[in-house]
Amino acid sequence: MVEIYDHTGAAVKHGRARVNGIRMHYVTAGEGEPLLLLHGTPKTHYYWYRLIPLLTPHFRVVAPDLRGFGDTDKPPAEEGYDSLTTATDVAELMTALGHERFHLHGEDRGAEFAYALAASRPERVKTLSFCEMLLSGQGLEEWSNFTPEKVSSQFRMDGVWLWHIPFFWIPHLPEMLIAGRERAFWEFWIKAETWNPNAITDEAISEWIARLSAPGGLRGCLETYRAGLKNARINEELIKTKLTLPIMTIGAPEFFGTLVRDQMERVSQGVTRSEVFEECGHSLALEAPERLARALTEFMLDR
Fold first, then answer.
1. Rounded to whole angstroms, how far apart are CA atoms 258 and 185?
2. Which residue in 151, 175, 160 sits closest to 226, CA to CA?
């Protein structure tokens, strides 16, 4: 495992927590207001290695490996990979660490989990940073449609064709096709979503591939997609009560762009800060860590 360091050069602190029927791996660093970071696919807590030292002067950062990822348990599918289950996982983690209220930042699938946590437990979340994601059942799936408009949208910078969503949902077939070719597949897939492919280092790819190649790693990752239809039903209930807490959205023109802001404005009482990071792609914390850290600090420390 590759290590992460805070702004003083000290290594982050690793921990294991028994939460919601699983054993969760996480790291902590820094002092100040608690800030929970939720990663996307197919990443782990290591996704935040450039961001954490920029945040630790201001926040007590908590970065778990989510259910199905990294060194956290990967239980059978029937035990749940949906957004509310993951929200419960990380809510119990923050309770175990003594943080009853906290700031919350999620990217990609981690942003959907962050929304589910904020919407189901609004009393616990001080601020929500919802970045580079759309919600299941609220626009995400329509961008996976195989139509000329959707396929060509990524060349016009006004949308993105999410071909992988139905592919990852299919039981067993993705595992058969990807197993043994993990690095070739995921490196291409992750870098294709960036503005600057060099922002995704060989070291980061190697770290994620090591976890995906471990027992249950690939299956655990894909189960979060197979929960997509359940997540859509969950979101249909959650959006009946609009969020009122402060929300920031960030999109990138090489992926979701302004769609992120539009999404949150439909399910909340209004977004208080919204940005599109120019010359940036889907992996904000690796492509634009300084801009992201500045946005998070300015947005959250005002609250």
1. 28
2. 175
In CATH, the architecture of 13-300 is 3-Layer(aba) Sandwich (3.40)
pLDDT tens profile 142-198: 888 888 888 887 666 667 878 899 999 999 999 999 999 999 999 999 999 999 999
**Pair of tokens at residue 232:** 């859509």
* Structural contact between residues 136 and 143, judged by C-beta atoms closer than 8 angstroms: no
Domain ranges (residues) in the chain: 13-300
H-assigned helices in the chain: 52-55, 83-96, 109-120, 148-156, 164-169, 173-178, 182-192, 202-213, 217-226, 228-238, 259-267, 284-287, 289-300
Token reading at 39: 């990663």
Q: Is pLDDT above 70 for 263?
A: yes
Summarised one tens digit per residue, pLDDT across range 22-42 is 999 999 999 999 999 999 999
